[in-house]
Amino acid sequence: MPEADDSHVRLESKPTQENAVAHPAKDVEPRMERTATQRSNDPPGLHGIRLFFLLSCLFLGNFTIGFDSSCIGTLLVILTDYFDALQDIGCLLTLCAPILVMGRLYTFYSMKLLYVISFAIFVAGSILTAASPTSTAFILGRASAIPTETPKADSYRSILAHTVPLKLQPMIFGICGAVECAALAFGPLISGSIAHADSWRVNFWAIVGLGSAVALGVSVSVGHLRQNANDDQLSVGQRLKRLDWYGLATELPMTICLILGLQWAGTTYAWSNWRIILLLTMTGVLALLFLVVEHTGGSNSMISLPILRRRNVAFSCVVGFCNFAALWIFTNYLPVYFQVVRGADTLHSALMYLPTTLSMSIFALASGTFTSRIGYFNPALLLGSTLSVVGAALLGTFETNTPPARWIAYQIIYGIGVGMAFQPPFLALQTVLEKPLVPGALVLLNFVQMLGGIIFLSISQNVFLDELTNSLTHNIPNFNPAIAKQKWSDRAEGHGARGVSAAAYNGV
């Protein structure tokens, strides 16, 4: 029998577990109307005020995540000047290495418990960030907080998948995406206003308060949700044995070697330096070992390789990787362009960035509603990806004197594309996979997205510093290239705004 065509998958049901096991490479066409057997296996859902309270807490959690992410781009120039460390710009958003472990934890721990713990760690990291006296302390705080953002996102999606009917999930997830995009939209404006009026530290103290409220609210609004109730009988030792320690031992150093290699190459050390060669070689070797470990790990593996043979899963990961790779670059360097090249302060930079974030927020919500109405996620995904490519290409044409009509319109085009393509990859996984596989698949998709952002943010930092140094050396006689790695402001060091601005733009 020919393989089922999954190019027009409809949000109507999930494949049965027996079919998924027998044909792991096929994407069975899903349908929204679920069978009585499937409904009877679902955990009891929430209703009324409890559901409203839970959704409110999860929406606030999404806003907190988005606000935390949006702070960095707006405050980037202030932070690098304050800590006198431009070379640390790519370290402000840090390691995604521990993320995949969450996929295994979901199989025998409460989703609510993991969500609350993730927010507790996030709050602790934000406290260190807000109180950090040095660049190293700031990065340690971010390194503690950022790796929990994806587990929080995985947890809330898993909680909603177990408490909201499938037919309503596109709309609810669209609202979640819109809330996060709204935080991305107004977060720069809020953080820029706070930094302009008081201090950048106040932003992170506000995040501490929001995160604490979310953790407390979720802890009292929903019971313990588990994939398998039988796992309650397992001891702590048995649960630890089920974690993929060999996979973690290869994936963690692989990610670190890759990030360090990309950040150091061409800036701290030459590409031909033995350190860079060693780091990239170790990355390749560890990647091969990781694939071997995951292939032989069986049911305890962090990544279920058979589900990657499903086209919807594989292409969702590819789309997520590419979308976040571009998004992280623009999120970090558009504010740099507005502040360094156009001479805007943090408040006006946030206002100039609103076209991107507002269009993202509006069309993330519209995309979820549209998908819920028609039952197909491919139209929004394809149109959104196309518009984001066009918008990204147009954003790459920015110059020092680009008129407002152009930089506003180009941002809107890109924001519409990113907003439309924000949720469909997650909806695809929740539609084509049976429920026990969904949390692990969501973790994998979030890991791929985070990895794409980190890799290309590191590459963009490398390109930025290299081009910035070359441009400053070319435009300013007797300029010391080492200054570019420590001080960079179009108003700094008395070099003249016009010359440094043009050079800085070429670096971007």
TrEMBL record:
Residues 1-42 are annotated as: Disordered. It is a multi-pass membrane protein. SUPFAM superfamilies: MFS general substrate transporter (SSF103473). Residues 1-15, 24-36 have a biased composition (Basic and acidic residues). Pfam families: MFS_1. Belongs to the major facilitator superfamily. TCR/Tet family. This is Major facilitator superfamily (MFS) profile domain-containing protein. It comes from Penicillium chermesinum.
